[in-house]
Amino acid sequence: MNSQSPTILVDNVSKNYGKIEALKNVSLEVEQGAIFGMLGPNGAGKTTLVKILSSLIKPTSGFASVAGFDVVKQTRLVRTIIGLAGQSAAVDENLTGRENLHLVARLYHMSRKESRTRAGELLEQFDLVESGDRAVKTYSGGMRRRLDLGASLVARPQVLFLDEPTTGLDPRSRNDLWGVIRELVRGGTTVLLTTQYLDEADQLADRITVIDQGAIIAEGTAAELKQRAGSEFISVQSEQEDQVSRTVEVLRKFSTEEPTVSTHDRRVTVSVSDGSSLLTGIVRELDAAAVAVTDLSMRQPTLDDVFLALTGRRAEVAEDEEGEEAARGDGDD
Ligand SMILES: Nc1ncnc2c1ncn2[C@@H]1O[C@H](COP(=O)(O)OP(=O)(O)OP(=O)(O)O)[C@@H](O)[C@H]1O
Ligand SMILES: [Mg+2]
Question: What percent of the chain has pLDDT over 90?
Fold first, then answer.
């Protein structure tokens, strides 16, 4: 054992909302300077854990601490050292980006001068200088997320909680934000991030915990989790219907698993262990079997695939039917 205690410690934490068990005996540790990824579908308990660690709600049982401070008994100290970028934006739509940052700085008791300087620094850091003096309601989704992240960093927190930082962003904005998060960790910040995307956890996190229905169901590096999900998928679409069976035969040779066929679009998919090394061989064999390929793609496993492998059922990712988040967003005026 290291003499230094973990920066984030969660020991046997449970949280009940009436009959709903949002968290069931969750335990985890995050060392200083690490990015810890918590991966799970809608309703898994991710936000509940983030709220407990930010001392916004109390666990029903168990113990949790951040930088050695008890999240139940030392809430004020916890709040001085953490930053939180929550799922629903905490910024004021009618103020400009600069005004929002300034306001947050003032809330942290910085002087006017300090607040002004800090707001300017953050606009710079998050590439918002040009839009800094426009009302936030004119911002794109990506700009809002960057501002949100900036606002959570005003007081230079040691520990940062990011609750689904890139959900709803286009690929480019996601990439930009990932870059910013990596930069932060280089500066020593400890990050716990929740996400529904395996590729996001893969991009950012040193270690990943998979949570489902309030319980941790797997732990490991992204590579380890992907391994369990069958590594990669190769999918081939052929031009003619009579070429589908030949495609199946070819792909069978490259995998220990049976290919699956989607008849309506003549697409055959198979999981393989090292896709990129097999591609050339597959193309060659398809050619030899006179299959006219209209599309050939390789994709990494998603949360969905990991879930299927771990639980035998699909993760309910994407838009939730109840639209809870959307409903909550209504009353912000
Ligand atoms: N205030 C509350 N009252 C009652 N139930 C709640 C409350 N907050 C959360 N829950 C329930 O607890 C469970 C976990 O919710 P939580 O918000 O932590 O999930 P999540 O993993 O963050 O999901 P999402 O990906 O949709 O944000 C869900 O079943 C949710 O409906
Ligand atoms: Mg959530």
Answer: 63
